[in-house]
Each structure stands twice: as structure tokens, then as C-alpha cells.
Amino acid sequence: MKLAVMSCIHGNYEALNAVLSDIDRHKTDQIYCLGDLVGYGPHPNAVVEMIRSLDIPTCQGCWDEDIVDGLNACDCSYPSQLAEKRGKQAHEWTDQVIHPEVREYLANLPITLQAENLAFVHGSPNSQHEYLLPSMDGFAALERVLSTGADVLFCGHTHVPYVRDLEGGKLSMRVHQPGQAETQKQSTVSLKRIINAGSVGEPRHGRPNATYVLYDTDSKQVTLREVPYDYQKTCLAIVEQGLPPIFAWRLARGMEFAERADDPNHVCQR
Amino acid sequence: MEQWAILSGIEGNLVAYEALLDDIRRQRDSVAELYVLGDVVGLKGDNRAVVQRLQSPRTGELEPQVCIGWWEEQCFNLYLLGGLPDAPELIAQEGADTAQHLFESVSRESVEWMRSLHFGFHELDCLLIHGSTVGYADELTPDMPAIQLCDRLIRADAKNLFCGRSGLAFECWIEPSDLCSTIVTLEGTQAPKEQGRSPRRVVGVGNVGRILGQATYTLYNPANNHITFKTVKYGKAKGFALQGSQSQHGHESPDIRASR
Question: Does residue A97 belong to any structural domain of this protein?
């Protein structure tokens, strides 16, 4: 069975169309989406309507959650307070233009999806806001996969695609409790895999192309896809809609924009 | 180096806390630090008296370093100072009448004091906390899968994680090794890396007030990394009366008298 998995569309209809066309060309059996349908981009309603019309199983992203729950999420992931202000501007704009039925759809998205030995989440199994970066400690990453009961964990949220294989990890455990004999256990974990689908609508891998992944459940082969599209159309729409122009600037470069942090000690107040 | 006394879960039981302080005073190796890992209030005892006792140690006593526990979080919620104003965890676990009882047993001033407490303490290579960095309700036990305990130690960024949520006294050494991590990005395949860590430890510090007549706590010597679990027997099986004390390993302690 051939799967296509995408994430972080962020209201970028042009990019979504390009990715769906690319998926068509690869003749996949099933598409999954890992959330963040809205936010930053100029076409949140059109993106959600397209995903709904294609009946694509989708889990809830952090932006989808925020639009429903009203920015109660942790904003610590912003690189600076200026970036956080821009994020809030985008939130307010999206909150104003979004249709009631779109909001309801986002509210009812599941946090996780599971299909046999595959699990699908936006950030991590713990939270839509946790980043599973490739630099994360291997055993911590392994714990995230094991907590789902799956062998393969698909995630997004970082906007940079990667595949990480975790193999052969051993865990020794020795327990002492008062009045009881000491116990020892050792276990070895079989191959587990994290597949980050990157971002359709707001890539940050250094180029403006949309990214997603193809996965063959029989051969276990993963293909990281990079799809060119007319990103300038989206950039223009961002500016026309009155969203912060820096969103267009960074979209054209495929990177996060972060000025020097106003407050490097900014900590979560959630 | 001198020892640390680490305890959790006084749960309003002042007599148990007094018995434990007496036991600490009797230690041959002196105790330099006193850590209280939350749950100073509870349902059965005198919460106001325990808070007052912690706030005002007597002359010559150690200043207790107290962090927030599960019961304190419930008080924040009941006094509309927490993230969950209806205290759903508390009501689901104990019922609405119990929630009302807890509300009445702590003053607003006590709750304000609790709000000023730390979430945990990082000292040397140790994290001292009620639950874990995941949250105050995270209950670490020796029955948890090793990978979860390993994760909590990695998150703690410490070699020793002292916690009190479970109320159990235990030490659990975890050694992760031989994990081969290979990463593929759009730019290509990175060289595989083998990951492992030196053994680290989760320590459950016991519970002071939950079981009447028996308080457990932990002594830790940072100089040699040695842990001693202490059990202090006191009083009768009911009420909070105080009669005697017996330490772990069968060493009989002299009778102790403490006033409430």
C-alpha cells in the first residue's frame, strides 16, 4: 500500500494544489494529513474545504487547536517576542475570516490517528506543540514512538522533513525497594522509525518548494518529496490580505525569519 | 559532605512531620538540607498547622525547601488561582464534598504562600520535584516501563531524579545503551550515531503522612551518591497521637514526644 503524508499546509492553497497533483502522479492508495491547515497563509477556508472534500484523514495541529480554543496554547516556540506578535496577528486575521463550519471541522479533528503499525500526530504523541527535532536524544525519540504502540510515527510541526531510524536500543533497569530483593531487567527495542513530513505551505528547509512524504507499507521505503509551485502567488495574496509581509519574505526563501530575541529569557507562562 | 533529607506527602499530618524531624535530628551524619517535595496539605490532618510549621521553623532547625505537589495544585484550582477552576481531577478522584472540605481546611493566605513555592529544585546533578518535569501529576513508579523512566531522566537533565508523587520508597537505576540513530534529510543521509548514557537513577522518596503511624523519607549523601530510606514509626494506628519511633533496619529509637 502506498501512502502520501503531508503536514503544515498553513492556508497555502497554491502549495496544496501542487502537492495533490504530485500525489496523483505517484498513484497513492491513501493520503494522511498531520494538521496545521490554517495560520500564516491567506486561504484557510479553501484549504480546509479541499481537505474535507477529499475526505483525507487529518489530525489536529497546534494552529487548528488555537483557532478553536483561542490562543490558549504555549507561544514559547516563537524565536522572539516580535515573532510572537506576528503570530498573534496571523491568528487574529485567521480567526476573523474563518467560516463557522471550518472552525467546527477543526474542533473535531483527532489528536492522533493510527493505522495498524503506523501512528500519525502533528507534533508528538504528547502534544501538538512538541517538536520532534532530528537532534532530539535518541532514547527520548524512541519513547515517543513506543508510547503510540506503533513501529512508525509520522509527525510534522518542524516544517523540515526527515526520516530517523532508531535501532538496537538496550535498556537495563535495576530496582531496589526497602524490604524487597533487588530486581534487574534488560530489554532490547526493535527498529522504530520517525518520519517527519515537512511542510506543504510554509517550508523551512532552505528552499521555497512544498514538501511531503511517500511511504510504501510493503517495502517500508520512504521518499521525501519536494514540489516546486508558484509561491509568488501565495506571497502576493499574503500581502494583499494585510498579513505581515515578513510571511511572504520567508515563504519565498523557505526559512523561518527570526530577529534577535527581545527577551532571550522568555519562558512559558502557560 | 553532609546529607540531604528529602520527603514528600505530609498531607496535613503534623505529628508525622514532627516525628520525622526528630528522626532527622538523631542522625549520626548531620543533615544540611531539608527538601519537601510537595503535598504538604491533604484531607485528614491539620493543613493550617502544617503550613505554619513549614513557614516558621524553630530556632536551630533547617529551613525546609518546599515545592508544589498535587494537593497544592488542587488548592490553587479551588481558590481560582490555577489552570482548572473546577478542580476536575480532585472532584473525579475524591468527590465534591471532599473538595469542599479541602477548600475549608486551607486559608487563602496559605494558598498564596503555596503559590510562591517552586515547581522543583535543581541542585548539583539532582532534580527534586513532586511528579516530574512532565507535570505535577506524573506518577513515577518502579513498575513503569524502563523507556518512560529513561525519558523522564532525559527531560530532567539530571543524574538523580527525586520524586514523591507515588508515595513509594524506591530507587531505580536506568542504563540506556547501543541505540543506533540514522537520519535522512533532503540533503542526504547523515552518518549513523550510536547513543547511550551512563546509568541514572529515579528515586521515590516515600510518604510522610498518608499511613498513620508510619512515615517514610529519604536521606541522600551527595558526596558518595548513597541513598538511605528511613521509616519512622510513631503514635497509634488511629488519630494523630504520638508515642514512639522506630527507624528502618530494626534500630529502635528512643521514645519521642512532640507537641502539636
Answer: yes
Cell of A14: 497554491
Which candidate from B172, B174, B184 shows the least CB-CB separation from A163? B184
| C-beta atoms of B184 and A172 within 8 A | no
Residues in A closer than 8 angstroms to B199, CB to CB, are 172
B168 touches chain A (CB under 8 A): yes
Nearest to A168 among B148, B175, B178 (CB): B178
Confidence of residue A268 (pLDDT cuts 50, 70, 90): very low
A227: domain CATH number?
A: 3.60.21.10
B259 inside domain: no
Does the CB of B44 have a partner CB in chain A at under 8 Å? no
Q: The domain that contains B96 carries what CATH number?
A: 3.60.21.10
How confident is the model over A39-53, as a mean pLDDT? 96
Cβ burial of A69 (10 Å; 0-12, 13-18, 19+) is: exposed
A169·B179 Cβ contact <8 A: yes
Chain B residues with CB-CB distance to A168 below 8 A: 178-180
A138 contacts B195? CB cut-off 8 A: yes
Whole-number pLDDT of residue A78:
63
Which pTM value belongs to this model?
Answer: 0.85
Structural domains counted in chain A: 1
Structural domain includes residue B200: yes
Nearest Cα neighbor of A162 from A124, A115, A199, A114 is: A199
Query: Where residue B223 falls among pLDDT bands split at 50, 70, 90?
Result: very high
At B254 the pLDDT is: 31
Q: Do B173 and A173 touch (CB under 8 A)?
A: yes
- Domain membership of residue A270 (yes or no) is no
- pLDDT level of residue B195 (50, 70, 90 thresholds): confident
Structural domain includes residue A52: yes
Chain A residue whose CA is closest to B193: A138
Which of B151, B154, B185 is facing A162, going by the closest CB pair?
Answer: B185
CB contact under 8 A, A138 and B150: no
- B256: in domain: no
Q: Give the other-Cβ count within 10 Å of A28's Cβ.
A: 18
Residue-averaged pLDDT of chain B: 88
Domains contained in chain B, number: 1
Task: Identify whether B157 is part of a domain.
Answer: yes
Structural domain boundaries enclosing B219: 3-250
Confidence band, pLDDT 50/70/90 cuts, at residue A133? very high
Please give the residue range of the domain that contains residue A188.
2-253
A255 CB neighbours in chain B (<8 A) are none
Residue A115 CB neighbours (<10 A): 16
The average pLDDT across A247-256 equals 91
Residue length of chain B: 260
The pLDDT value recorded for residue B82 is 81
Best B118, B132, B151 residue to mutate vs chain A (most A CBs within 10 Å): B151
pLDDT above 70 (res A80): no
- Asked whether residue A59 is assigned to any structural domain, the reply reads yes
